[in-house]
Automatic annotation (TrEMBL):
Sequence ranges assigned to domain Dihydrodipicolinate reductase C-terminal in this UniProt record: 122-259
UniProt organism field: Desulfomicrobium orale DSM 12838
Record's protein name: 4-hydroxy-tetrahydrodipicolinate reductase
GN (gene name): dapB
Source organism phylogeny: Bacteria, Pseudomonadati, Thermodesulfobacteriota, Desulfovibrionia, Desulfovibrionales
Ranges for domain Dihydrodipicolinate reductase N-terminal: 4-119
Family affiliation: Belongs to the DapB family.
Enzyme class of the recorded protein, top EC level: oxidoreductase
Pathway(s) annotated for this protein in UniProt: Amino-acid biosynthesis; L-lysine biosynthesis via DAP pathway; (S)-tetrahydrodipicolinate from L-aspartate: step 4/4
Membrane-spanning ranges: none
Claim: NADP is one of the keywords in the record: yes
Keyword NAD among record annotations: yes
Positions annotated to bind NAD(+): 9-14, 35, 92-94, 116-119
Catalysed reactions listed for this entry: (S)-2,3,4,5-tetrahydrodipicolinate + NAD(+) + H2O = (2S,4S)-4-hydroxy-2,3,4,5-tetrahydrodipicolinate + NADH + H(+); (S)-2,3,4,5-tetrahydrodipicolinate + NADP(+) + H2O = (2S,4S)-4-hydroxy-2,3,4,5-tetrahydrodipicolinate + NADPH + H(+)
Keywords per UniProt: Amino-acid biosynthesis, Cytoplasm, Diaminopimelate biosynthesis, Lysine biosynthesis, NAD, NADP, Oxidoreductase
Length: 263
């Protein structure tokens, strides 16, 4: 059976990748796309209903899974609609603030919802091995993260960098709110041991690179993930859509549930 999907932000970088992959696969039916009116030109050629808001799209495809890689306010509005209609939602949007994430968590109690700032298997693997690496190396090793993205990216640091920072801070029993240092300038002084630097570079058409550094005495370890294309993110989101339709609402699901076997 093919899974009907509605793609939010279909004219965007991720939206257009998702629509292409959904059209190419027999596992999915592109049941609708949502895009702002001024950016909808050309989307009719996709051969599915083109709507300017999610409610209209769902009226034409009431069983669809909604996939949203847009912007925080748009994502929250879509999640509120889906929580009323009961449609599952897969969210890849980053740059959400704490209140927005808390609202998603609340909506997800009664609506099937999946959110991950990075849908690639490679980054998920990093989140699993980094705590172990941190433990083996020990607290003599200073941890820093750099991320590089294309010059169109609006949020910084990337959602992935924030997630990796949370994982690393958690591995040392630290609270990221206390230890995160986001880009140094001026006269910050010597680096405290209890700190986690996170630094964002922007330029060109870089899809997404993340490097975690462990700087130790006389050596350093670097662990890098580089995305070569947006297809791995889109494939992860489509995989999450298939997985989500068989779930019950159970809080905000993520890659740990999809790939780590958590219920
Ligand atoms: N989780 C993951 O694996 C990944 C997450 N991302 C995240 O996904 C998000 C989108 O990234 P990207 O595709 O590069 O960004 P784009 O700006 O290319 O795409 C966002 C799209 O959403 C559209 N949009 C804005 N408002 C609305 C609206 N009201 N209704 C429908 N569509 C709307 C935008 O239109 P307009 O141009 O008019 O604003 C645009 O087409 C970002 O938060 C990014 O960080 C990206 C890659 C992977
Ligand atoms: O905006 C992007 O492009 C990406 N955003 C995600 C993030 O913020 O982590 C994931 C990926 O790195 C690409």
């Amino acid at each position: 059976m093919s899974v009907p999907v509605i793609i939010m932000g279909a004219g965007g970088r991720m939206g257009s990748t998702l629509t292409r992959l959904a059209l190419e696969s027999e596992k999915f039916v592109l049941a609708g796309v949502v895009e702002r009116a001024e950016y909808s030109a050309g989307l009719e050629s996709l051969g599915c209903p083109v709507a300017h808001d999610l409610e209209d799209a769902l009226a034409a495809a009431p069983e669809a899974v909604v996939i949203d890689f847009t912007a925080p306010e748009v994502t929250l509005a879509a999640a509120r609609v889906a929580s009323r209609t009961g449609n599952p939602v897969v969210i890849g949007t980053t740059g959400l603030n704490g209140a927005q994430i808390a609202e998603l968590e609340k909506l997800a109690v009664s609506c099937r919802m999946f959110w991950s700032p990075n849908m690639s298997v490679g980054v998920y693997a990093l989140t699993r091995i980094l705590p172990e690496l941190s433990r083996i190396l020990g607290e003599d090793y200073d941890m820093e993260i750099t991320e590089i993205h294309h010059h169109h990216k609006k949020d910084a640091p990337s959602g992935t960098a924030v997630r990796l920072a949370q994982v690393l801070a958690g591995a040392r029993g630290w609270d990221l709110a206390d230890v995160g240092n986001y880009g140094r300038h001026g006269l910050p002084g010597a680096r405290p041991a209890r700190e986690l630097g996170v630094h964002a570079l922007r330029g060109g058409d870089v899809v997404g690179d993340h490097t975690v550094y462990f700087f130790g005495p006389g050596e350093r370890v670097e662990v890098t993930h580089r995305a070569h294309s947006r297809e791995n993110f889109a494939r992860g989101a489509l995989r999450a859509a298939v997985w989500l339709i068989t779930r019950e609402p159970g809080g905000l699901y993520g890659m740990d549930h999809l790939l780590g076997g958590l219920a």
